[in-house]
Amino acid sequence: MKINTIGFTKKNAQTFFNFIKHESVSTLIDVRLNNVSQLAAYAKRDDLKFFLRELCGSDYVHIPDLAPTKELLNNYKKGYISWEHYQESFLNLMARRNIERILKPSLLKDSCLLCSEHEPHFCHRRLVTEYLNAHSDFNFTVKHLY
Fold first, then answer.
1. Tens digits of residue pLDDT in 95-113
2. Domain coordinates in residue numbering, the chain
3. What distance in Å separates the CA atoms of residue 115 and residue 9, rounded to the nearest whole number?
4. Core vs surface per residue 39-72: b (16+ CB within 10 A) or e
5. Environment class of residue 34 by beta-carbon count within 10 Å: exposed (0-12), middle (13-18) or buried (19+)?
6. Do 122 and 83 meet the contact criterion of CB atoms below 8 Å apart?
7. Which backbone phi and psi does 31 adopt, to 5 degrees?
8. So which domain of life are we looking at (predicted)?
9. CATH of domain 2-145
10. What pTM, to 2 d.p., does this model score?
């Protein structure tokens, strides 16, 4: 099974939707804490649903259980905690939420996890895929689109 990840920053709408279309993404899974921010431009929830359906034939689903808590994210962004501490805390949060039990393989097949970060290196979407590969039988390959 294949799963993609993508961040919308540093991409215009044409580039973003071309990635989704080229990878034949069936479902874009929004893993952001806030999916209606004015800073998100074309990636705001309602606009994104429309564009995905019309331009790519893809579905949209928001799964807040795959996002960090507001407190954890703020502590990292403000520099109160290191990436290593954030990563450990986030992975523990995924374990407490039992995300491997709430996600169905049919939803993940040919899907793409969406966050805001341009690259996956310091983004929780990468951690979600690594956690699922380590704690489930999904065994998917991951492609980061950027």
1. 999 999 999 999 999 999 9
2. 2-145
3. 9
4. ebeebbbeebbebbeeebebebebbeebbbeeeb
5. middle
6. yes
7. -110, 20
8. Bacteria
9. 3.40.1010
10. 0.95
